Model the fold of this input.
Amino acid sequence: MGADIPGEIWLALGLFLASVASGLAGFAFALIASATALHFRDPVDATPLILAGSLLAQCLTILAFRGHVRWDRLLPFVACGLAGIPIGAWLLSSIPADPLRKAIGAFLVGYALYMLTRSRSAPVAWGGKAADGAVGFLGGVLGGLAGLSGALPTLWAGLRGWPRDEQRAVYQPYIFAMQTAALAALWTQGAIGPRAVADFAWCLPPVVLGAWLGLKLYGRVDDAQFRRIVLGLLLASGVVLLV
Done:
């Protein structure tokens, strides 16, 4: 793959496509960027690059939904998610994590396929902030375990039946908070090397352009199309966990 093309070009292309998806749907940057970043870079360099690129893309697009943020709704997700991250990291290092990843992947695949083949169901109204916090916590655990903190909160925001702008005003700031915590942990551990910094500088323009283009595309899709895009990316997230 890419025998005649420098790895930096592939990295830039991968992060551009990831930024388009992030701008369009509000998540899945890490899912898409990892396909190229982990091919051309070791995890020690790819992980901080993916996190930094995702945070930049989120910064550029969250601003478009700032008027839809409800802090009373968002805070249970974020507070409980931050508590879940170290537990996920402990699970990753302390117990066989592969069966758990596959179980979560099978759930996401089954859910996405089921919802793609049926009409939209009635919104889930039970549980209130306690249920929101529980989903945020599980997302944090999954983030520490597999780097996919946004999958469950994104799924849950859709089940709640919130308008799409309000969905993004929940799961995008949530993903931003989780990834900021992860990047800060890498920084304090001295795990961000000069190669990751150089790669980020190289990929900065494609990330900005991709996020802008994705946000423009978002303005052209209706609610039904947005639902299918989100479910398709959740399906892809589940497949990644299964393979």
